[in-house]
Amino acid sequence: MPSAEQLFAIANPIPLPAWLLLALAPRWRFTLPAVRLLVVPLLAVAYAAILGARFGQTSGDFNSLGGVQRLFADPYALTAGWIHYLAFDLFIGAWIVEDALARRVPAWARIVPLPLTLMFGPAGLLLYLALRSLTAADRRAPAATGPREPAGGLA
User: Fold this and answer.
1) Share above pLDDT 70 across residues of the chain, in percent, rounded to a whole number
2) In whole angstroms, how far apart are CA 152 and each of 93, 101, 111, 127?
3) Are 22 and 97 in contact, with CB atoms under 8 Å apart?
């Protein structure tokens, strides 16, 4: 098995082209499928593989801060945790783009939160949700007019 440092060096740059596509070519027909069906699953497989290879070889738990600290003291667990962030933040970035396009959120209000989502996950999502509420051209019809079909299955 490669070292944790090698796995980190391999995994860390993988989502960057996907983030660029989300920011610069969100309407390109391959952008969202590439992100959702290729890059995010690739990161998820890497995450699962590291966990599977190292299962039971680390001390620590998720029951206390000290337990989490002991868990992430293992470089493989730390690398898996980083890949977890890479995958989930990218998934949220794709959701932001898809939701923004469906709601006709202005491009700037879609693009500005993406770097924040890449670097700080929930903070970027929070910013997008705030900007969406202020700028969306399509604020979704009230429930009284009937349900609306979600765009691409994620709404």
Assistant:
1) 88
2) 15, 11, 20, 22
3) yes
What's the structural domain count of the chain? 1
Residue in 84, 92, 85, 90 with CA at minimum distance from that of residue 129: 92
Range of the domain at 72: 4-103
Q: Please spell the DSSP secondary structure of 10-41, one letter per residue.
A: HHTTTTHHHHHHHHH-TTSTTHHHHIIIIIHH
pLDDT digits (tens, 9 = 90+) for 39-78: 999 999 999 999 899 877 777 778 899 888 988 889 999 9
Find the angle CA(52)-CA(58)-CA(64) to the nearest 5 degrees.
115
Q: Give domain status of residue 81, yes or no.
A: yes
Indicate whether 128 belongs to any domain.
Answer: no
